[in-house]
Amino acid sequence: PKRSPSRPTRTMMSSKLRYLVMFLGVQLVVMALLYREGYQKRVAYFFRILRKGEVSQATTVMQPATHNVTDPRFRDIYANLSLQAKSTVKEELLPYCPTESPLISGPFRVTFPSKLTLEDVKRKNPLVVRGGRYRPPDCESKHRTAVIIPHRNREHHLKYLLYYLHPFLQRQQLNYGIYVIHQAGNYTFNRAKLLNVGFKEAMKEEEWTCMFYHDVDLIPEDDRNLYTCDRHPKHVSIAMDKFGYKLPYNTYFGGVSALTPEQYLKMNGFPNNYWGWGGEDDDIAVRVALSGMLISRPSVQVGRYKMIKHEHDKGNEENPKRFNLLAKTRRTWKQDGMNTMEYRVLSKEYMPLYTNITVDIGSEKGLHPRT
Ligand code: BGN
């Protein structure tokens, strides 16, 4: 028969165990108290050392910009991004990036520091090259994503968007480019036509596999929101702070959306005739349905965006014709869109953080109206 430990040994063990449990209990209570007292950073630091057993890692976490990686309210989108290793392997021999990027970390803090400059953004993104292009340094991305941003007089917003978008896309290990399509002149703004121009101009440069059509004032808040395309056109900005992090209505397609070139061409692109605010995004949603496609969406947990607060723009007043136009989309979508857009590129500048395309898109009367 097996011998069980003698009675005194068992008592000794159980009393040791009791002390250990008591000791750990006291530790936990102290930690909880400290945490309540506002020592979150230090406590998190301690836990991190326990978990990783790596003081060097923990030291980098203590730097001001990267503190408290566990709490999304403090997580810095740039944290540890510079640790990406430059590979010594020749570019054409790089392995494919993994299906899930190991750099993705979930929600991050979005604030708008008043002192931020484009120079700062540039300094923080040393691997971004001329024209706002990037490819992962250590692997070959399976995704080539172009971000198209319609723009006029919103330099301030653009700076913040670039500040967050560059590290966000790098964390996803994408091969990407950022295009700002700047409407020249003072005539009423036309978002959808600028998006059409963005598609055409970006595709001249590279075989992008996915286009993100992106408002300048929307900042993503979670890097699990992948900037890649789905089987169906994707409406991406589904949980905006402005709408209480919910969809304002079921067919809403505004803010940020993503389509493959095939999906875009199948629906004849976007309408060219919505001048001013509103309705063009609803028209795009109708086109998706009319061309026999569905709308795909990320989950509400990750499709979160913060909108930079601003006044209504001059030159982008509500479009009174939008109701009539929208009622006619079924009849007009094949005659107006990708196949009919007229525009004139005035300049194309390869800026350090984006490609700036300034374009004359004319007016309702056409590109060169006779006066
Ligand atoms: C809708 C607008 C959208 C806008 C959302 C959110 C119209 C068309 C009415 C028939 N649509 O009302 O363009 O993105 O609100 O602000 O105005």
Automatic annotation (TrEMBL):
<dbReference type="GO" id="GO:0046872">
    <property type="term" value="F:metal ion binding"/>
</dbReference>
<dbReference type="Pfam" id="PF13733">
    <property type="entry name" value="Glyco_transf_7N"/>
</dbReference>
<comment type="pathway">
    <text>Protein modification; protein glycosylation.</text>
</comment>
<keyword id="KW-0808">Transferase</keyword>
<dbReference type="InterPro" id="IPR027995">
    <property type="entry name" value="Galactosyl_T_N"/>
</dbReference>
<dbReference type="InterPro" id="IPR029044">
    <property type="entry name" value="Nucleotide-diphossugar_trans"/>
</dbReference>
<keyword id="KW-0464">Manganese</keyword>
<feature type="domain" description="Galactosyltransferase C-terminal">
    <location>
        <begin position="234"/>
        <end position="311"/>
    </location>
</feature>
<keyword id="KW-0812">Transmembrane</keyword>
<dbReference type="GO" id="GO:0005975">
    <property type="term" value="P:carbohydrate metabolic process"/>
</dbReference>
<keyword id="KW-0479">Metal-binding</keyword>
<keyword id="KW-0333">Golgi apparatus</keyword>
<keyword id="KW-0325">Glycoprotein</keyword>
<dbReference type="InterPro" id="IPR003859">
    <property type="entry name" value="Galactosyl_T"/>
</dbReference>
<keyword id="KW-1133">Transmembrane helix</keyword>
<dbReference type="GO" id="GO:0000139">
    <property type="term" value="C:Golgi membrane"/>
</dbReference>
<dbReference type="Pfam" id="PF02709">
    <property type="entry name" value="Glyco_transf_7C"/>
</dbReference>
<keyword id="KW-1015">Disulfide bond</keyword>
<dbReference type="InterPro" id="IPR027791">
    <property type="entry name" value="Galactosyl_T_C"/>
</dbReference>
<feature type="domain" description="Galactosyltransferase N-terminal">
    <location>
        <begin position="97"/>
        <end position="230"/>
    </location>
</feature>
<keyword id="KW-0472">Membrane</keyword>
<dbReference type="GO" id="GO:0032580">
    <property type="term" value="C:Golgi cisterna membrane"/>
</dbReference>
<dbReference type="GO" id="GO:0008378">
    <property type="term" value="F:galactosyltransferase activity"/>
</dbReference>
<keyword id="KW-0328">Glycosyltransferase</keyword>
<keyword id="KW-0735">Signal-anchor</keyword>
<dbReference type="GO" id="GO:0003945">
    <property type="term" value="F:N-acetyllactosamine synthase activity"/>
</dbReference>
<dbReference type="GO" id="GO:0005794">
    <property type="term" value="C:Golgi apparatus"/>
</dbReference>
<comment type="similarity">
    <text>Belongs to the glycosyltransferase 7 family.</text>
</comment>
<comment type="function">
    <text>Responsible for the synthesis of complex-type N-linked oligosaccharides in many glycoproteins as well as the carbohydrate moieties of glycolipids.</text>
</comment>
<protein>
    <recommendedName>
        <fullName>Beta-1,4-galactosyltransferase</fullName>
        <ecNumber>2.4.1.-</ecNumber>
    </recommendedName>
</protein>
